[in-house]
Amino acid sequence: MKIASFSTKSYDRASFDRILPEPGHSMSYFDAKLDIRTLSLAEGHQAICSFVNDHIDAAMTKKMAKMGIRLIALRCAGYNQIDLKAAAEQGIKIVRVPAYSPEAVAEHAFALILTLARKTHKAYNRVRDNNFSIEGLTGVNIHGKTVGVIGTGAIGRAFCRIAMGFGCKVLAYDVVENEEMKQLGVQYLGIKEVLASSHIISLHCPLTPDTHHLINAESIALMQDGAALINTSRGALVETKAVIKALKTKKIGFLGIDVYEQEENIFFKNLSEEIMQDEQIARLMTFPNVLVTGHQAFLTKEALAQISSTTLANVTAFEKGEKLVNEVVAGK
Ligand code: NAD
């Protein structure tokens, strides 16, 4: 099939190019983010391959159908950016990569925790300036802390295993409890209890209408003073305004985020020569106890290989009329 890939980075291209010849598909790579204007680049293709910030609304699905696009192959797990109902109405199928090294994201969440807990981001800059003073670098142990995990899907479970390995007490909230985690010693509680009892809270649930701004002024008030909040899931799980306020009052002691509510206009771009227009991210950068990474938690060699192979397998299954095991269906 002819696939038009949007928001393509060099690492995507390298990873797809490595395996493309085998299934016999061809891929046109476009740097451009997918939107109603750039969609015309996909003329002559039968499938679109898109990423987390490529929003697809009803108007776009209509245009896609007219252009002969029959498949949207997401090279990510989340699908909150797609109007699934509109795509279904146009007869366009959607497939995704449900799990691509959940460990990659879980390990990144832990990297954020360890960096913030031991201030290695500050130490790195200091020693490069020949400043070997350790004044102000006092950290906290992770061992013995209570870690609250919201969402124990593939990534949340990998995160729980790491936390158990560190000797943490692990509490969890999920709409569906997981037996394997219970056997491991993870204790499921209501969300309020998890928020109230944890030193570190890590978010691993999807963004849905139910989870939008899950972390807001009200839920922050339940947390322990100085709690650490880690978000590697989706930016809008957290109301940034409320978190900034809580950082100022020290209610939140550490914030580690790989995703950001307004990331669409910022992440995946080099804006180093520009004036930052987003007031909230600019404010977040001023806190010494905040660490922001630009949606890179998934970015490991292992995960990229899994993403490209599953994406192309999804396309092949569609082309052959086989069962789409990774199909995303509206209302499910
Ligand atoms: P998953 O589908 O395996 O697990 C999601 C879990 O969340 C499930 O157990 C589900 O029951 C639970 N859940 C659903 N609604 C909930 C709610 N209201 N409260 C609590 N739990 C709820 O997904 P996953 O592979 O573990 O991925 C989790 C999220 O991580 C994805 O939705 C995506 O947004 C994000 N993600 C981020 C990156 C990154 O690079 N930063 C990469 C991959 C995925």
TrEMBL record:
Residues 11-328 form the D-isomer specific 2-hydroxyacid dehydrogenase catalytic domain. InterPro entries: D-isomer_2_OHA_DH_cat_dom, D-isomer_DH_CS, D-isomer_DH_CS1, D-isomer_DH_NAD-bd, D-LDH-like, NAD(P)-bd_dom_sf. It comes from the Bacteria. Keywords: NAD, Oxidoreductase. PROSITE patterns: D_2_HYDROXYACID_DH_1, D_2_HYDROXYACID_DH_2. Residues 110-297 form the D-isomer specific 2-hydroxyacid dehydrogenase NAD-binding domain. It holds the Pfam family 2-Hacid_dh. Belongs to the D-isomer specific 2-hydroxyacid dehydrogenase family. This is 2-hydroxyacid dehydrogenase. It comes from Algoriphagus oliviformis.
